[in-house]
Amino acid sequence: xxxxxxxxxxxxxxxxxxxxxxxxxxxxxxxxxxxxxxxxxxxxxxxxxxxxxxxxxxxxxxxxxxxxxxxxxxxxxxxxxxxxxxxxxxxxxxxxxxxxxxxxxxxxxxxxxxxxxxxxxxxxxxxxxxxxxxxxxxxxxxxxxxxxxxxxxxxxxxxxxxxxxxxxxxxxx
Length: 173
Known about the structure:
This protein is an alpha+beta fold and about 170 residues long. The protein is about 30% helix and about 25% strand. The chain contains 4 helices and 5 strands; from the N terminus they run E-H-H-E-E-E-H-E-H. The chain has helices at about 15-25, 35-50, 105-120, 135-140, and strands spanning about 5-10, 55-60, 65-75, 85-95, 125. Strand 2 (about 55-60) and strand 3 (about 65-75) form a beta hairpin. Helix 1 packs across helix 2 (about 35-50).
């Protein structure tokens, strides 16, 4: 195995990223609506349409995308202390199963946090699987008593509040 580069994704990689997204849903027990190739092509179109609100970082080994994560940028209501405000949400972190436990997921997390800092975002949140919490904590994330969420069920979510076990990598959600 060669050296792994972590960097922003380029449009020519979005279909490969879409394939990883399909793999992540399938790996963690989700049911795909479309075949992998169809979803990957649709995903590439989506990524192009959401460039202003979502940034993708990839892990590339020998020219092949083997991991990804996304920074979703969420504008916030202006405050008297800071008019232009935004937060980030780390989404869809995934590394191919055969490439895990080599620090690639951590490098992807760090890239997202660094990018959020460059953009001046107030914070980055993540919805983690139970087994990935320690990974995020090693990279600066911490639980806070004031940050709450309401669980809303959708077709990708586990049954109301149930935890999903994963392989120790960041949650694909």
